[in-house]
Amino acid sequence: MRVRVAARGSRLSLLQVEQALEELSRYAGVSMHWEVVRVKSAGDVWSDRPLESIGVVGVFTREVDRAVASGAADIAVHSLKDMPTSGYGGPLKIVYIASRPSARDALISRQGPGRVEDLEPGSTLGTSSARRRALSLHYNPRIRVENLRGNLDTRLRKLREGLYDAILASEAGLIRLGVDVEYTPLDPSYFPPAPGQGFVAVVARVGSKVEKMLRDLDKPPWWHVAWAERGVLEGARAGCRTPVAAYAEPLGGGMVRVTAAALSPDGSRAYWARAEGMIGEARRIGVRLGEELSRVVEGWHNTGGGS
Fold first, then answer.
1. Is 158 a catalytic residue?
2. Among 155, 269, 283, 288, the one annotated catalytic
3. Which of 132, 284, 285, 293 has its Cα between 20 and 30 A from that of 119?
4. Considering 4, 144, 240, 266, which one is annotated as catalytic?
5. What predicted TM-score, i.e. pTM, was given to this entire model?
6. Do residue 149 and residue 123 come from a single domain?
7. Same domain, yes or no, for 145 and 232?
8. Domain for residue 193, yes or no?
């Protein structure tokens, strides 16, 4: 089967296309040959600006999806964490989610191995993620967190040049790129990731040859885990600017545990919620936890503590 794949043109994005389609070929039992249609997202065009200033929702996916909706490509490949929770129930649909090598964040520090609270007072930590910023300040309010955009190579170069004392990155990205750098993986129960972090999603038009091929196949075992984390976003109505984190893990025996967290942007307030249930109910569990987060955050705003 020949397919045109819309994707961002970064090295990591192209590696994710390769992983996702090789895995999808094995899953569907079909030999797939692909041609990449490179698309620049708004996040790529405005790479020098903080994400909040250009709009968080769909900033890395909107233009890529348009290529599929217009017929310029057959499918799109995205990092699941970049995808909004709305917009995939109409003409476009998530048809496959590739497995992730890790959900964890990684702390890369010029001060050596350690967790965020081990960074020295006054240290400068670089990240463009509101979630990573809030969690970092929650654990270590004595550091400075400054915006850092760009691909991983750019961020590592700025770290080596001494512009930052430490940076945060996705461990999945480090693994996929084969980066040889010392880092500390941060346990998800301590530093929960972005919902869907590490997963790669394949999007197709409803009724297309790819969507029809995958429609009736059994879902891979990590499918429910991914949707539990997205469920947290749905329930929390994220798209809002409140930093939200989620991590789901299978427990065996058909059970799943979902951890969710919400923080104020400055990290001064944080709320964790956890629940377990049958893995077939994972998405609903995630939604319920997200709704719980939403109620807590609304209470923060009502008491003047949500900023």
1. no
2. 155
3. 293
4. 240
5. 0.90
6. yes
7. no
8. no
From 38, 66, 144, 149, active-site residue: 149
Pair (169, 136) in one structural domain: yes
On whether residue 160 sits in a domain, the answer given is: yes
Domain range spanning residue 286? 221-307
Helix (H) or strand (E) holding 273: strand 270-278
Determine which one of 8, 65, 74, 82 is catalytic. Answer: 82
Catalytic site residue 240?
yes
Residue 82 among the catalytic residues: yes
Asked if residue 146 lies in contact with residue 124, where contact means CB atoms within 8 angstroms, the answer is yes
Is the Cβ–Cβ distance between 80 and 196 less than 8 Å?
A: yes
Q: Is 288 a catalytic residue?
A: no
User: Does residue 216 carry a catalytic annotation?
Assistant: no
In the set 8, 132, 133, 257, the catalytic residue is 132
Decide if 145 is inside a domain: yes
Q: Give the model confidence (pLDDT) of 184-220 as tens digits.
A: 999 999 999 999 999 999 999 999 999 999 988 888 8
Sign of CA dihedral 292, 51, 91, 211: negative
Known active-site residue 149? yes
Are the beta carbons of 59 and 40 closer than 8 angstroms?
Answer: no
Q: Is residue 286 domain-shared with residue 206, that is, in the same domain?
A: no
Which of 10-24, 124-138, 291-305 has the least mean pLDDT?
A: 291-305
Mean pLDDT across the chain, nearest whole number?
90
In sequence order, what DSSP letters do the residues of 63-88 get, joined into one string? HHHHHHHTTS-SEEEEEGGGS-SSSS
Beta bridge partners of 7: 38
8 part of the active site: no
The single residue of 93, 131, 230, 283 carrying the catalytic annotation is 131
